[in-house]
Amino acid sequence: AAPSAPPRSPGEPPPLAQLSRRVDWEQWIGIKGAAVLGGIVLALAAVMFLRYAIEYGLIPPIVRVAIGLATGIAAIAVSERLRGREYVTTANALAFGGIVVLYVSVWAARVLYELVPVSLGFLLMILVTAACGALAWRHRAREIALLGPIGGFATPILMSTGHDDPIGLFGYVLLLDVGLLWLARVRRWPWLMILALFGTFFYEALWVLFRMGPDRTEIGLGVLVLFGLFFSLALGLRKPREITSEQDAMERLVQLAGTWAPFGLALYFAARADLGDHLYPVAALMLVLSIAAGWLGRTERMPQLPAGAAAGCVAVVMAWLMRTDFTTALAWEASVVCIALTGAFHAFLELDKRRPVEPGQITGAKPAVTTSLGFLGLLALVAMTAAGTPLWPWMAGWTALAGIAFRQAGVSGRGLIQEAAGFGLALGFSLFFLTFHGSSSLPPDTLFFGLVILAGLGLQIIAFRRKESKLRRSADWAAAAFAMTVLFLMLFESSAPAIEAWLYLAATITLGFLSVLSAARLKSGGLYFAVVALLSCNHLLWVESGIFGSGGREAALLSMASQLAVVIALSYLPFLAGASLLRQRWAWYGAALSGPAWFFPLRQLFEAHFGDAAIGLLPVVLGSVSLGAVFMARRLGPPDDADRLRPLVWFSAVALGFASIAIPLQLDKEWITVGWALEGFAVITLWKRLAHPGLKYFGLALLAAVTLRLVANPGLLDYYERSGLPIVNWLMYTYLIPAAALLGGLRHLRDREVERARSWEENLYSGRRPLGAIVCGMAAVAVVFTWINLAIFDFYAEGAALTISFERMAARDLTLSLAWALYALLLLGIGFNRDSEGLRWVSLAFLVLTIGKVFLHDLGELEDLYRVASLVGLALSLILVSLAYQRFVFSKRSAKEDS
Fold it and tell me: CA 525 → CA 419, 534, 589, 634, 649, distances in Å?
């Protein structure tokens, strides 16, 4: 026997195949289909009869209406008789048709024939609607119930006389909604709620958009409040329960939509300036609805309800802010409204904290945070557009909303709220200052920056007083976000400053050290490095703008002393912070690089006060600061400790760098190039003592930059005028000192580079070749060759500037050929002496280059004895090369082979 199907559990729906077999199509078509079609045909017959009677005037209007009313009543009466005989489907269809006939008859009596006054016609429509609802409730007839909202909401339009009566209209709609919601809940027909909501919103929108004027704004707002509360509270007056059916889900949906819909029309109120300048009326609407949404969200366990209301509040206020031309009073109004709405949602968050609906859950955080941070961002941005308004109303809004946000973070345990609040507060202060500086909107600069610093200190105190570690850490980030944001936006002020030098320096330095305080508590080396970078950029732009010059030499001295103190403090703070920054590598990078970061602004300030006669003292002083840090780093731990090695390496490199540029800086011409070259050599020398790969790569990077600057930078020739002395001039030390530095780097790297390679460098040194040394050697060859050519061009040049001209000049071209050949022979000799095959190949390459020049250029351009001399020189060079190879290379190879 075939196995039987497993039994179904109670409540489990039957299989789809069984359902399809149970559908009795004959019953559907023969009973339900015929009944429904009969009801529709009856209604259509009534309409056609009235139309025919009207066209041909068969019977008077009053008789026509009476016949229609009698027909409708008779249809309903017959349906009741049929229902008693168990013909339910036919009875429902007949009652449906009778209701339609009654609606049409009443409409004809009032609109077509004006047989009854408006009040009586309206009353009759209400009676028909009530009868429809009663029949639907009594007999559980969905078909009849559908006519209730359709006819009920059509009545005001069908009975309209053109007279505007909002109180009567919306009073009727409210009564209709009460009936529909009652019927929907009693008979569990959730679609009636949807129809009620759509019909209500239709009339609200229709009246607000086309009937309401500025003198009746209060009525419109009252209507929105009334129906918003109705749909939110009428469906909320029950015990909270889980969504277990379609009815429950639909009630929740209608409750949400009914509460949120007024915010859509409130946007219209807020965006239209002709409806009034003030936000208070719309704010009152939103406040009432927000409180209702918060209460229902808590009692009904519907967190999305207040969340949507909070988003609606922010959107409505934004629409009003964008269209308003602000005065001082309106600015205060904006701040007060934002604070009040935020306070309403925050109150429920506090209530959740004290009396949670569910243990351990804070459900009111999202709407509260949406309003606090949303309004904070809006006020910070909109204040930029409020020309002529003072700082105070906006600052009151920023600080109050930021304070509420910090409280919300403490209640909800969400630290990110604090960071956003700190950023928003900084944005408000900074943008307002950059927009209105110099106008009457701002208080005196001293007072303004005092308030900014006071706000920064307040955030530091909040962070210090936080007890929970996660919140304390985020509060530290919030304090840093405030100070760093203001400092970043001060870059725009630094490029075109308009405040006094002492105030600018005091404000930026204080903000920088507030950020350093946060970095120390956070143990964040990255933040420390960012402070160094941002503060140095501010001071560089400020000095480049020349603002200190308006105060004379005294202002330059004050600025230089202040910035030098900053360098000293930032260099030594990681030592003083102890364990907070000791193991943070980026903190040491920032501390070590603080001297180089402030070198350029300090140089300009030094020259502005002392002149450039003793400019070499500046790198000596800065190098001394780094040298002092080197001695402090030596006491940090054992010699092989990475935390000791890191600051030791970086401060030593910086100290050597400053020492290497002190003398070139006094030479004036090309001090940067010479300084970089000496610093690169010094750093590689330090690597010889401290085997840190960062030193090697840093030194190679400096030497590579010098090589590119000397070999591939045609603009170098335009920097300075030609010297009066040929050969022995600024070109010689500019090229030969870097060449010597490159050769020194080659010497240090050649014997140690491969042995000191780290594990991550294995692929780089797989061939066991000292690549860094090879690169230094090739770069030295290229630099010297470039100098030889420039020196010859300079020797034969005329005028104040050195120019590279390829016009025919026999003596110069011959000198170039001979110099190239001699340089190739010199390299060959060094290659023989060092037994360097690579260098010998380089010399041969230069010799081939010389041969090419002689045959491709000299033979065509030179004449007479110049041509002969060029060929003789080349011939002698080739003979010497041949003899040298036979004597020093191949003779040794033969001896080795014989042995």
Answer: 19, 14, 9, 20, 17
